[in-house]
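Much of our argument rests on the idea that a fold can be written as discrete symbols. The amino acid sequence and the backbone structure tokens for this protein are reproduced below:

___
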Amino acid sequence: MSPLSQAVLDFVDLFESRAIQYAIMGGLAARAHGMPRATFDVDFTISVERDDLPSLFDAAEDLGYTIPAAYRAGWVDQVSGMPLVKLGVAIADRSVDVDVFLAESPYLREVIKRRCREVIDTGHVWLVSPEDLIVLKVLSGRPRDRIDVQDVLFMQGELDRRYMRHWAEQLGVLPRLESALQEFDNG
């Protein structure tokens, strides 16, 4: 089993054993909803109180994961306006990053509500919906994300554009979403 797959299994089991609602996002979700591609980290969003993070960190450390001291001390990073904690592990001489976004905003709480149960190479897991993956990729806006958006649109067919437009507007990225949709429609 690859180190990445092992990390997915570890965290899915950890979240499910603690009844923590989660959804896989990022490259793994892009592979499931779009085209197969390489990815080297695992991205989750989870519904957990910040007061419960130390207990979660303890459990992750018991599995061999490391938590940077800043996160242990209560610091929470922000990426594209979303709260994030990072964990890491070395499995078979390979480092795997695990990024955990905290579902504290109205949007990320909605992402958790709309998650879908899918089968990936590690088994049954919860993934962000294709629509939410597109919104998250547009929010991130890196070149790889723009490719992922086009792949998901191509593979998924008809998606709820009204929903995507609503959240893209709320998150301040509606012009980027419209550009991606126009590129797909004209492609």
Notes: The mean pLDDT is 94.
